[in-house]
Amino acid sequence: MKVLMKGNEALAEAAIRAGCKHFFGYPITPQTELAAYMSKRMPKIGGTYLQAESEIAAVNMVLGAAAAGVRAMTSSSSPGISLKSEGISYMAGSDLPALIINVQRGGPGLGGIQPSQSDYWQATKATGHGDFQILVFAPSTVQEMVDLVSTAFDAADRWRMPAMILADGMLGQMMEPVALPDENEKTLPEKDWAANGHQGRREHHVINSLYLTPDKLEDLVVERYQRYRQVKAQEQRAEAYLCDDADIIVTAYGASSRVARTAVNQARERGIKAGLLRPVTLWPFPVDAIRKAAGHAKAFLTVEMSMGQMVDDVRLAIDCQVPVHFFGRTGGIIPTPAEVLGEIEKLA
Amino acid sequence: MKDLNIIFAGFGGQGVLFAGKVTAYAGLIEGKELSWLPSYGPEMRGGTANCSVCISEQPIGSPLVTAPNVLVAMNQPSLQRFIDGVEPGGLVILDSSLIDLTIGRADVTVHRVPASALAEENGLKGLANMILVGKLFHELGFCPPETLDQAIEKCVPARRAAMLELNRRAVALGAEQ
């Protein structure tokens, strides 16, 4: 039978079942249940739970553990992710796989503690300095939070890059029924690059992000971008709901996609052909699915809990073939289905 | 089954989140789609706390209930905050030991249960929430009593097994009101 779990706790349990035995964190609302859950569970399975002295220390501990070849993760909420951005950039520059969870709250600055989606740009464009990308997954249910944790760890290992789950306070705090994967020890991929001690049996491995020779650094960055091209071709995910015959396509991810789904259903009851295209990966952005939907839609409406961030990527994907409208609430306000329905009706 | 969009609201410490969790578990046991969303933040410390519970045959869209068809209110500020949003035809269950407001709406069904006083008189201190849950399930009739019983078992931690029987008594008492 399914169990009822909070999103934050489900993320933690899913990570353990995905073979993560090393968690480094620092408390912040609305993410704290995740770390609290880890503090109870990790000692029982022989893993490491460590509350660091700061977010920066925690993310650098993840870097160290990832360099040693184990599955490691950290979690935080918006202001804490800003602090972790240095370490994420270093991990990207060192080609290290790890999982970072952002349970978003309102910003900028300390902002507020209610749910928000205003870290989209940060997650997909600039999680730190330098030329790099990270994988970004956006669950919309507690079950999907569970499923995407394992997907994110696997993808991070496959491409040797950090992965992020971009959630929000609503998904983190809410409970829904979940089916968890079984607890059997997972076979994890071999990491023949790990700096994990070898007692002189091989050449030593170097994990590093400092390259003072421009030619060498350029070569490495270009190689990384060739990998990103493959990631874009293979990892895009999106869910299309009632899109096949839709005149108006709402695009939304995470919490706001749930509101949008209700509004789309209500629009259909009123005879408006609305659909929902929900990006599941935010990087790589599901350009192919959006372009396909743009082929027959008359208008797009992007709904976010922000002042409008993902809407830029929707416009770029569509390349101005169809008008793209925006509706958002921010600061910790969750839009209501009635508000979104009102916006859909304006376009119908 | 008609969709249930419920708000449980009261002071922090009255057990409104727990009441919502028991209700959500009953939905789970009945094989329904459901969500439970708490208010979180500074208002929980001595102020008002509330949670939204949605139970449906269909996947839940927004788990934040803004227009409830059921409101369980355990104090006056909560009633005042949420009563206007209740859908016409909705059900309102309130703790009349703590709420003496008149409700200026004729289009909702109101059940006044002196839950806090009943709890005090029956050795069920702190279980006014479960008396109201008993009344709620009696009025809704969306599941058999055994389901509620199992839901309580799921929500009372094993180390507090003594609370199980008290919760059952509270629910039974609520159903009689």
What does this structure look like?
The complex is a heterodimer of chains A (348) and B (177). With 348 residues, chain A is of the alpha/beta class. Helices cover 42% and strands 18% of the residues of chain A. In chain A, the strands form three sheets. Chain A has a seven-stranded mixed beta sheet with strand order 3-2-4-5-7-6-12, with helices on both faces. Chain A has a five-stranded mixed beta sheet with strand order 9-11-10-13-14, sandwiched between helices. In chain A, helix 11 links the parallel strand 13 (299-304) and strand 14 (324-328). In chain A, helix 1 packs parallel to helix 6 (142-159). Chain B is globular, with a radius of gyration of 15 Å. Chain B is built from six helices and six strands. Chain B has helices at residues 16-29, 76-82, 115-121, 128-140, 145-155, 162-175, and strands spanning 4-11, 33-38, 48-56, 70-73, 91-95, 109-113. In chain B, 50% of the residues are buried. Chain B is an alpha/beta fold and 177 residues long. In chain B, strands 2-3-1-4-5-6 form a six-stranded mixed beta sheet, with helices on both faces. The chains are: A alpha/beta (348), B alpha/beta (177). Chains A and B meet through helix 7, strand 8 and helix 9 of A and helix 1 and strand 2 of B.
Task: Give the structure's gist in a few sentences.
The complex is a heterodimer of chains A (348) and B (177). Chain A is an alpha/beta fold and 348 residues long.
